[in-house]
Design a protein that fits this description.
The chain is mainly alpha-helical. The chain has one domain: Up-down Bundle (Growth Hormone, Chain: A). Helix content is 76%, strand content 2%. It has 16 helices and 6 strands. The strands form 3 sheets. The protein has a two-stranded antiparallel ribbon with strand order 1-2. It is globular, with a radius of gyration of 22 Å. 52% of the residues are buried.
């Protein structure tokens, strides 16, 4: 049952339970983005000298980065399924937070052999937490509550406050003192999140407390199937960690991209044809499918921040401020700072447009976000041309890129979260959020593949890849605008017939 706030029991005008979710998400994103900012730098860092890294090639490191980001968001689907059917969303969030904490502390152990084990823990924990905590946010509101979309903007602020802390703290410790100090700081941040959630969980009430109702015999079969699946997965992981098999990272990333695309497409088709949905719910599935495509394309560019853009910052950008060389990761907290500044602006803008009956459709908002992403890489193309003439270039080009990408993010991401919360079929909310994050997974894998292609030959190979990215963002944006126009015309025609 959805929760409702009272005038004396609220968090910035929203249900009090949003405070619990806000702080949990803040610390989880601190740990995630803080560690992610170090990941490619650590993998490609020299094996000797101060703060030695793993010394891997760009192609290998970028592929592993893409696989990691893709896995983080793909595992959200089984995480949503477990929450919907067995655990309940609250319990899934708590278990996920604890596993994430263990993962970061594993990465903090200064032994190379623990690297992949730590990443696996973070992936599994994030799969349980990420989609389910977003689901609980939606459950705090009734279906008629008009505050839902703005509630997701408030929630989105937590993501960016947390990522700012992660970039600031983890990047400094990791780059200036030692990589494993940065990983450990991420673990400490997640510990704060776990403690906070346990102490304030009661504020959530019944929102997401229980799984879907079903026959106990059926639930017992699902539990047994889950245990068997987890056991098999554990054996596969252990076999890989002890060296019984090896994986070509680049080939795996390419295969993973096609697998994710197939899974997402198949699931949308299943929902439409075989899930027993009403005609209105089927229309919603079509809408969410269109938004899914736009989101996947967007995140392939956005996740370049810790991929190709991070390497561009390291190798071709002047990072000195008054003689002090700032950590590379500090450039990345331009994004969350911009989000904190501009999120109220975008939320207010959509509200004002809605009052004037001028609020753009969801596909139009997504197209706007994609066009802004295209513009950001036009800026980077110019920065690359400058670097070819005289390197290093001023950091303002990266900051401008992050600013434009932030505007695109605010036009797309909170809106997408609210759309998947409002328009998802009721029985499949957790799994639909899993699909939303699968778009992030596809985008993350593409980011790693495109980043590897862009950096394989240094500056000479960057421009063709970035130019291609500009083109496909523009094409998808135009397609969404056309589709939105056609949908609008169809509705007008039907209303005229009536």
């Amino acid at each position: 049952m959805n929760q409702a706030s009272t005038p004396n029991d609220n968090f910035f005008g929203h249900p009090i339970g949003l405070r619990t979710l806000f702080l949990t998400e803040m610390w989880e994103r601190m740990s995630y983005y803080g560690m992610r900012a170090l990941l490619v730098l650590y993998m490609t860092g020299a094996m000797t000298g101060f703060n030695p890294g793993l010394g891997w090639s760009q192609l290998e490191a970028q592929a592993i980065y893409g696989i990691y980001v893709g896995m983080v968001y793909f595992i959200v689907i089984p995480g949503g399924w477990l929450a919907d059917n067995i655990l309940g969303h609250q319990k899934a969030v708590l278990i996920g937070a604890i596993i994430i904490m263990l993962g970061h502390f594993t990465l903090a152990i200064p032994i190379d052999q623990t690297f992949f084990l730590g990443l696996i823990f973070v992936v599994i924990g994030t799969g349980l937490l990420k989609g389910n905590i977003s689901t609980i946010v939606g459950k705090l509101y009734s279906d008629e509550d008009g505050r839902r979309e703005n509630g997701y903007y408030v929630f989105y602020m937590a993501i960016n406050i947390g990522s700012t802390l992660g970039f600031l703290i983890c990047s400094y410790l990791g780059e200036k003192i030692g990589w494993h100090w940065g990983f450990g700081a991420a673990g400490v941040g997640m510990t704060f999140g776990v403690i906070q959630f346990i102490k304030t969980r009661h504020l959530l009430g019944s929102a997401g407390a229980e799984p879907n109702s079903m026959d106990e015999a059926k639930r017992s079969r699902l539990v047994l199937w889950s245990k068997v699946s987890l056991g098999i997965t554990a054996l596969v992981i252990i076999a890989g960690l002890v060296g019984l098999y090896t994986i070509n990272a680049r080939a795996f990333a390419e295969g993973f991209y096609y697998f994710l695309s197939f899974v997402a497409g198949t699931y949308f088709l299943y929902l439409y044809f075989f899930a027993g949905l009403t005609s209105e719910e089927k229309k919603s599935v079509i809408l969410l499918g269109l938004l899914f495509i736009g989101a996947a394309a967007f995140w392939s560019g956005f996740d370049q921040s810790a991929s190709s853009l991070s390497i561009f910052a390291r190798d071709y950008t002047d990072l000195s401020i008054s003689g002090y060389i700032i950590p590379i990761g500090w450039l990345q907290f331009a994004n969350p700072i911009f989000v904190v500044i501009f999120a109220p602006v975008f939320a207010g803008m959509w509200t004002q447009l809605a009052r004037k009956n001028l609020n753009p459709s969801l596909p139009i908002k997504f197209a706007f976000g994609l066009l802004l992403m295209a513009l950001s890489f036009v800026v980077m193309l110019y920065a690359v041309e400058l670097a070819l003439v005289s390197s290093p270039v001023n950091m303002r080009w990266l900051i401008l890129t992050y600013l434009i990408q932030t505007w695109g993010e605010l036009a797309l991401s909170p809106v997408g979260l609210a759309a998947f919360s409002r328009h998802s079929p009721k029985k499949y909310v957790g799994q639909m959020f899993g699909l939303w994050f699968t778009a992030s997974a596809i985008g993350g894998v593409l980011a790693g593949l495109l980043g590897g292609d862009a950096l394989v030959e240094g500056l000479d190979s960057i421009s063709p890849v970035f130019g291609f990215m500009v083109q496909y963002y523009v094409i998808i944006a135009i397609a969404l605008i056309v589709i939105s126009f056609l949908i609008g015309k169809t509705r007008e025609s039907k209303e005229g017939q009536r």
